[in-house]
Amino acid sequence: MIYFCCQDRRRDAVAAQQSINGIDFLEVRDDPSLPQNQRQRTLLVNFVNPLVPGSLTANNVHIEGGERITNIKVTGALIGSGAQSHLLTVTVAEPGDFSTYTLRLLVNAPGATQPPAGFDPILSAVDFSFKIACPTDFDCQAVHVCPTSPLASPSISYLAKDYASFRQLMLDRIAVLSPEWQERNPADVGIALIELLAYAGDYLSYRQDAVATEAYLGTARRRVSVRRHARLVDYHMQDGANARTWVHVRVTNDTSRGHPGDPSPLPAGTRLFTLMPGQPSRIPTNMHGLDQLLGQATAVFETMEPAPDALFVAQNEIQFYTWGALECCLPKGATRATLSGAFTNLKKGNVLVFEEVLGPRTGIPADADPGHRCTVRLVADAVVTQDPLGGFFATPPNNNPVAVTEIQWGADDGLSFPLCISSKLDPEHGGSVKAGISVARGNMVLADHGLTIAGELLGPVPPPSQFHAIVIADRCNPPSPDPIPPRFRPRLSRGPLTQIIPISDPGGPASSILTGDPQQALPAIQLHDNSGRNWDLRSDLLASDALAMDFVVEIEDDGTATLRFGDDTNGARPVASTSFSANYRIGNGVAGNIGVDGLAHVVSDNPNIASIRNPLAARGGTNPETIEDVRQRAPSAFRTQQRAVTLEDYAAAAERYPQVQRAAASFRWTGSWRTVFIAVDRLGNLPVDPTFEAAMRQYLDQFRLAGYDIEIDNPRFVSLEIEMVVVVQPEHFRADIELALLAIFNNGTTADGARGVFHPDNFTFGQTVYVSPLYAAALSLAGISSAQITKFQRQGNPASDASATGALTMGRLEIARLDNDPNFTEHGVFSLIMEGGK
Question: What is the CATH number of the domain that holds 110?
Answer without folding.
Answer: 2.60.40.1220
